[in-house]
């Protein structure tokens, strides 16, 4: 059902919809075949050749030219995606997709190319090829081979984005565009381009809303198989929309007041006919996992994340801090109730007995865990350094440390991954925030705390792992650079107090220097040289307030004070101010 028609015509609110409600037939409107021509040109006939570079179809020929000429190359990349990622991502219905795939390659070129070419489906193919290029890269490989792989993957990614934008103008909306938007958003999360993922996720939401996916299919009296398929798409969109918005502090696209949603049934309908799906009974998710099961619990968690999102912005303006913190504690209880409702194979202390039978369980469990820790850290981090003589905010500190350590453990457990494992691991919610950075800031603020030694040891291992990861891009390197700075500041404070001897500090050194120096925008400043951090380097810098830095009033440090990860100047100011404040408290 990946190419099911949009109900009530070409869009949810449209001429077909209005005609249906008044009980009359409606004329078919143009599907966009004349898009790009002016009205007068359309009436008088175009004088431009059909394949003119100035014509409206030039974009289509360019997109077709982006595909490899040999079908065998595309076959290989598609096969890699289907075998290694499709089950984990719940991306496409393989039989339906392959039927369109064969039709595409069997089409006859000519003046009816536009009628034979489904550009909405082509956007899905392009983003699948982008993932396939990553999967096709051998491990280990040379720097040149890795660069070629990344460039080829980005080529297909840009083609997918272009076709995603163009397709609605020619053909209207379809579930294929929604699926393409979800996959493109996941690709951007993998590359840690979170700001861009906010845009593509919002576009996918609009495509879904245009098809009425925000209204549950039962209200539209749709077939059961279509209902469950639409619910799965909407559930994925809802989670991506609210979690990315929370991570960035930007508005989300879905207004629940305009939605009529129902929870998914734990039924895998893709292998059933319409008649079989209509009579199929849901399976108990506590004992029988399906590819749909994680979406059920993810959607429940997303509703809590939506409350955290609302609370964060309301709490920043409230005049009653006590009421705001009471709301935080209530949401903390909701998160724990959610965690307690997980089946044993998804539990925070999981039972792994089904992992061999269902290969995707490992990754679905990791996605749920990382989303839980992301939500919990984001909920509490605004209260991390709030002063209280009665330690009223200690639960927030404990929650941040607990979830950040658990999330860091997940990251450190990924040793010498295959490309498939790397991609699967790096599309989770932990990409939206950095638990290592939270722990680093905690060590800077409390360099003599009872847990600081253990935290610093794990942070050093994390930096070493990151610095030796050849696939780490400038966004990841910028994160690592900030974590290194946290380690240095904490060690300097401990060394000053005589509590620390010389400790090995891994550095991103030359790789950070090259990437951050070659892209000044990635650091937020136009510095010409990057020097690896060391204790001697930190000792030469004065810790404390400098002109232009943020205030040392930690009460003002809140949810909205988390800038882009590559804004290194801001991060450095925050860390220096926290370390200066910690020093003043110690003295």
UniProtKB/TrEMBL annotation:
One of its GO terms (cellular component) is nucleus. Keywords: Nucleus. It holds the Pfam family Fungal_trans. Residues 197-271 form the Xylanolytic transcriptional activator regulatory domain. It comes from the Eukaryota. It is found in: Nucleus. One of its GO terms (molecular function) is zinc ion binding. The keyword Lipid metabolism does not apply. InterPro entries: Sec_Metabolite_Reg (IPR050613), XnlR_reg_dom (IPR007219). GO terms for biological process: DNA-templated transcription. Its main location: nucleus. This is Xylanolytic transcriptional activator regulatory domain-containing protein. It comes from Aureobasidium pullulans.
